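2024-03-11 09:14:02 DEBUG pipeline.ingest accepted 1 chain
2024-03-11 09:14:02 DEBUG pipeline.ingest length=249
2024-03-11 09:14:03 DEBUG pipeline.predict start
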Amino acid sequence: MTNQVYYGPHLDDVAQGSRIELTGEEARHAHVKRTDIGELIDVVNGRGLRATIEVTSVTSSSLTGTAVEVVEEAPSSYPMTLVQALAKGGRDESAVEAAIEVGVQGIVPWQADRSIVKWAGPKAAKGVTKWEQVALAAMKQSRQAYLPTVSDVHTSKQLAQAIRSVVGGGGRVFICHEEATQRLAGIELTEPGPVWIVVGPEGGMAPAEVDLLVEAGGELVLLGDTVLRSGTAGSVAATVVQVTSGAWR
Protein backbone atom coordinates (compact mmCIF):
# COMPACT_ATOMS: atom_id res chain seq x y z
CA MET A 1 0.00 0.00 0.00
CA THR A 2 1.05 3.59 -0.54
CA ASN A 3 1.80 5.66 2.53
CA GLN A 4 -0.93 7.65 4.23
CA VAL A 5 -0.66 11.36 3.42
CA TYR A 6 -0.80 14.17 5.96
CA TYR A 7 -0.76 17.91 5.40
CA GLY A 8 2.10 20.02 6.71
CA PRO A 9 1.85 23.48 5.12
CA HIS A 10 4.84 24.65 7.18
CA LEU A 11 7.23 22.32 5.36
CA ASP A 12 9.70 24.14 3.13
CA ASP A 13 13.39 23.71 3.85
CA VAL A 14 13.38 19.99 4.64
CA ALA A 15 16.13 17.49 3.95
CA GLN A 16 16.75 13.81 4.59
CA GLY A 17 17.27 13.36 8.32
CA SER A 18 15.18 16.39 9.29
CA ARG A 19 12.86 16.11 12.28
CA ILE A 20 9.24 16.77 11.30
CA GLU A 21 6.36 17.38 13.67
CA LEU A 22 2.62 17.41 13.07
CA THR A 23 0.20 18.91 15.56
CA GLY A 24 -3.50 19.72 15.75
CA GLU A 25 -5.98 18.00 13.46
CA GLU A 26 -3.37 16.12 11.45
CA ALA A 27 -1.84 14.61 14.58
CA ARG A 28 -5.29 13.64 15.82
CA HIS A 29 -6.04 11.92 12.52
CA ALA A 30 -2.82 9.93 12.75
CA HIS A 31 -3.65 8.94 16.32
CA VAL A 32 -7.18 7.85 15.37
CA LYS A 33 -5.75 5.76 12.52
CA ARG A 34 -3.53 4.03 15.11
CA THR A 35 -0.31 5.09 13.42
CA ASP A 36 2.56 3.17 15.03
CA ILE A 37 6.14 4.08 15.89
CA GLY A 38 8.35 2.93 13.01
CA GLU A 39 5.58 3.34 10.43
CA LEU A 40 6.27 5.31 7.25
CA ILE A 41 3.92 8.16 6.33
CA ASP A 42 4.10 10.99 3.80
CA VAL A 43 3.80 14.64 4.77
CA VAL A 44 3.11 17.10 1.94
CA ASN A 45 3.06 20.88 2.01
CA GLY A 46 0.43 21.27 -0.71
CA ARG A 47 2.95 22.93 -3.02
CA GLY A 48 4.67 19.83 -4.40
CA LEU A 49 7.02 18.87 -1.57
CA ARG A 50 6.63 15.34 -0.22
CA ALA A 51 8.59 14.06 2.77
CA THR A 52 8.44 10.39 3.70
CA ILE A 53 9.02 10.13 7.43
CA GLU A 54 9.53 7.32 9.89
CA VAL A 55 7.35 7.95 12.91
CA THR A 56 9.26 8.19 16.19
CA SER A 57 6.43 9.24 18.52
CA VAL A 58 2.69 9.77 18.26
CA THR A 59 0.05 11.08 20.65
CA SER A 60 -3.41 12.58 20.21
CA SER A 61 -1.86 16.05 19.93
CA SER A 62 1.54 15.53 18.32
CA LEU A 63 3.33 13.28 15.85
CA THR A 64 7.06 13.43 15.20
CA GLY A 65 9.27 11.59 12.79
CA THR A 66 12.49 11.64 10.80
CA ALA A 67 12.54 12.33 7.07
CA VAL A 68 13.94 9.35 5.18
CA GLU A 69 13.20 10.74 1.71
CA VAL A 70 12.30 14.19 0.40
CA VAL A 71 11.15 14.87 -3.16
CA GLU A 72 9.85 17.91 -4.99
CA GLU A 73 7.16 16.72 -7.41
CA ALA A 74 6.90 18.50 -10.74
CA PRO A 75 3.60 20.25 -11.48
CA SER A 76 1.37 18.99 -14.26
CA SER A 77 2.05 20.19 -17.79
CA TYR A 78 -1.73 20.46 -18.21
CA PRO A 79 -3.00 21.81 -14.86
CA MET A 80 -6.75 21.29 -14.75
CA THR A 81 -9.37 23.53 -13.20
CA LEU A 82 -12.96 22.43 -12.69
CA VAL A 83 -15.66 25.07 -12.97
CA GLN A 84 -18.51 23.43 -11.09
CA ALA A 85 -22.02 24.87 -11.05
CA LEU A 86 -23.57 24.98 -7.59
CA ALA A 87 -25.99 22.14 -6.95
CA LYS A 88 -28.27 21.02 -4.14
CA GLY A 89 -27.96 17.97 -1.94
CA GLY A 90 -24.18 18.10 -1.74
CA ARG A 91 -23.81 16.94 -5.35
CA ASP A 92 -21.43 19.79 -6.10
CA GLU A 93 -19.18 18.81 -3.19
CA SER A 94 -19.15 15.20 -4.39
CA ALA A 95 -18.25 16.43 -7.87
CA VAL A 96 -15.35 18.47 -6.50
CA GLU A 97 -14.09 15.53 -4.44
CA ALA A 98 -14.12 13.09 -7.36
CA ALA A 99 -12.50 15.54 -9.77
CA ILE A 100 -9.65 16.24 -7.36
CA GLU A 101 -9.04 12.52 -6.93
CA VAL A 102 -8.59 12.36 -10.71
CA GLY A 103 -6.08 15.22 -10.62
CA VAL A 104 -7.90 18.56 -10.87
CA GLN A 105 -5.81 21.26 -9.19
CA GLY A 106 -8.16 24.22 -9.22
CA ILE A 107 -11.85 24.66 -8.40
CA VAL A 108 -14.13 27.52 -9.40
CA PRO A 109 -17.63 27.54 -7.84
CA TRP A 110 -20.08 28.81 -10.44
CA GLN A 111 -23.36 30.55 -9.69
CA ALA A 112 -24.99 29.51 -12.97
CA ASP A 113 -28.28 31.06 -14.05
CA ARG A 114 -30.15 27.82 -13.38
CA SER A 115 -28.38 26.85 -10.17
CA ILE A 116 -30.98 26.27 -7.48
CA VAL A 117 -28.46 26.82 -4.69
CA LYS A 118 -27.46 30.46 -4.19
CA TRP A 119 -24.26 31.64 -2.54
CA ALA A 120 -24.49 35.22 -1.33
CA GLY A 121 -22.97 37.18 1.54
CA PRO A 122 -21.74 35.04 4.46
CA LYS A 123 -23.06 31.92 2.72
CA ALA A 124 -20.55 32.41 -0.09
CA ALA A 125 -17.61 32.52 2.33
CA LYS A 126 -18.91 29.44 4.16
CA GLY A 127 -19.33 27.63 0.85
CA VAL A 128 -15.75 28.31 -0.21
CA THR A 129 -14.48 27.17 3.19
CA LYS A 130 -16.46 23.94 2.92
CA TRP A 131 -15.10 23.23 -0.56
CA GLU A 132 -11.56 23.92 0.70
CA GLN A 133 -12.10 21.26 3.36
CA VAL A 134 -13.30 18.86 0.68
CA ALA A 135 -10.23 19.68 -1.43
CA LEU A 136 -7.85 18.98 1.46
CA ALA A 137 -9.49 15.64 2.27
CA ALA A 138 -9.48 14.61 -1.40
CA MET A 139 -5.82 15.55 -1.82
CA LYS A 140 -4.85 13.40 1.17
CA GLN A 141 -7.06 10.48 0.17
CA SER A 142 -5.63 10.40 -3.36
CA ARG A 143 -2.04 10.74 -2.05
CA GLN A 144 -1.27 13.94 -3.94
CA ALA A 145 1.31 16.60 -3.07
CA TYR A 146 -0.47 19.66 -4.47
CA LEU A 147 -3.42 21.17 -2.62
CA PRO A 148 -6.09 22.36 -5.09
CA THR A 149 -7.12 25.98 -4.80
CA VAL A 150 -10.76 27.03 -4.46
CA SER A 151 -11.71 30.40 -5.97
CA ASP A 152 -14.47 32.72 -4.88
CA VAL A 153 -17.85 32.00 -6.42
CA HIS A 154 -18.16 33.32 -10.00
CA THR A 155 -21.20 34.66 -11.78
CA SER A 156 -21.54 33.83 -15.48
CA LYS A 157 -20.15 37.23 -16.46
CA GLN A 158 -17.17 36.77 -14.17
CA LEU A 159 -16.63 33.30 -15.55
CA ALA A 160 -16.63 34.64 -19.11
CA GLN A 161 -13.93 37.14 -18.12
CA ALA A 162 -11.87 34.35 -16.56
CA ILE A 163 -12.25 32.21 -19.69
CA ARG A 164 -10.97 35.08 -21.87
CA SER A 165 -7.91 35.32 -19.65
CA VAL A 166 -7.21 31.57 -19.76
CA VAL A 167 -7.63 31.31 -23.53
CA GLY A 168 -5.64 34.50 -24.06
CA GLY A 169 -2.80 32.91 -22.12
CA GLY A 170 -2.74 29.82 -24.31
CA GLY A 171 -5.08 27.60 -22.28
CA ARG A 172 -8.09 25.57 -23.36
CA VAL A 173 -11.57 25.77 -21.86
CA PHE A 174 -13.91 22.84 -22.48
CA ILE A 175 -17.61 23.29 -21.79
CA CYS A 176 -19.38 19.98 -21.25
CA HIS A 177 -22.65 20.08 -23.18
CA GLU A 178 -24.97 17.30 -24.32
CA GLU A 179 -25.67 18.99 -27.67
CA ALA A 180 -22.02 19.44 -28.61
CA THR A 181 -20.76 17.67 -31.72
CA GLN A 182 -17.05 17.68 -30.86
CA ARG A 183 -15.98 14.84 -28.57
CA LEU A 184 -13.49 15.69 -25.84
CA ALA A 185 -11.76 12.34 -26.36
CA GLY A 186 -11.04 13.33 -29.96
CA ILE A 187 -9.23 16.56 -29.11
CA GLU A 188 -5.45 16.30 -29.20
CA LEU A 189 -3.60 18.27 -26.56
CA THR A 190 -0.15 19.06 -27.92
CA GLU A 191 0.85 22.35 -26.30
CA PRO A 192 1.24 22.34 -22.50
CA GLY A 193 -0.97 24.82 -20.70
CA PRO A 194 -3.95 25.15 -18.39
CA VAL A 195 -7.12 23.19 -19.12
CA TRP A 196 -10.45 24.33 -17.72
CA ILE A 197 -13.49 22.06 -17.58
CA VAL A 198 -16.90 23.74 -17.24
CA VAL A 199 -19.85 21.76 -15.88
CA GLY A 200 -23.30 23.29 -15.70
CA PRO A 201 -26.15 22.73 -13.22
CA GLU A 202 -28.60 19.83 -13.19
CA GLY A 203 -31.10 21.87 -15.18
CA GLY A 204 -28.57 22.62 -17.89
CA MET A 205 -27.04 25.90 -18.96
CA ALA A 206 -29.23 28.71 -20.23
CA PRO A 207 -28.75 29.27 -23.99
CA ALA A 208 -27.61 32.86 -23.46
CA GLU A 209 -25.13 31.59 -20.90
CA VAL A 210 -23.68 29.09 -23.36
CA ASP A 211 -23.34 31.80 -26.00
CA LEU A 212 -21.55 34.06 -23.51
CA LEU A 213 -19.00 31.42 -22.55
CA VAL A 214 -18.39 30.30 -26.14
CA GLU A 215 -17.92 33.90 -27.23
CA ALA A 216 -15.30 34.22 -24.48
CA GLY A 217 -13.33 31.34 -26.00
CA GLY A 218 -14.85 28.21 -24.50
CA GLU A 219 -15.26 25.09 -26.63
CA LEU A 220 -18.39 22.94 -26.41
CA VAL A 221 -17.50 19.27 -25.99
CA LEU A 222 -19.38 15.99 -25.74
CA LEU A 223 -18.17 13.39 -23.25
CA GLY A 224 -19.92 10.34 -24.68
CA ASP A 225 -23.17 8.80 -25.85
CA THR A 226 -24.88 9.10 -22.47
CA VAL A 227 -25.99 12.21 -20.59
CA LEU A 228 -24.14 12.57 -17.29
CA ARG A 229 -25.24 14.31 -14.13
CA SER A 230 -23.62 17.55 -13.09
CA GLY A 231 -21.96 15.68 -10.25
CA THR A 232 -20.37 13.12 -12.58
CA ALA A 233 -19.34 15.04 -15.69
CA GLY A 234 -16.36 16.85 -14.19
CA SER A 235 -14.48 13.76 -13.05
CA VAL A 236 -15.20 11.98 -16.34
CA ALA A 237 -13.93 14.95 -18.35
CA ALA A 238 -10.83 15.20 -16.17
CA THR A 239 -10.13 11.51 -16.75
CA VAL A 240 -10.35 12.02 -20.51
CA VAL A 241 -7.90 14.93 -20.30
CA GLN A 242 -5.47 12.86 -18.25
CA VAL A 243 -5.48 10.18 -20.95
CA THR A 244 -5.42 12.41 -24.04
CA SER A 245 -2.68 14.62 -22.61
CA GLY A 246 -0.53 11.57 -22.00
CA ALA A 247 -0.38 12.02 -18.25
CA TRP A 248 -1.98 8.62 -17.60
CA ARG A 249 -0.38 6.69 -20.43
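2024-03-11 09:14:41 DEBUG pipeline.report The chain has six helices and eleven strands.
2024-03-11 09:14:41 DEBUG pipeline.predict end
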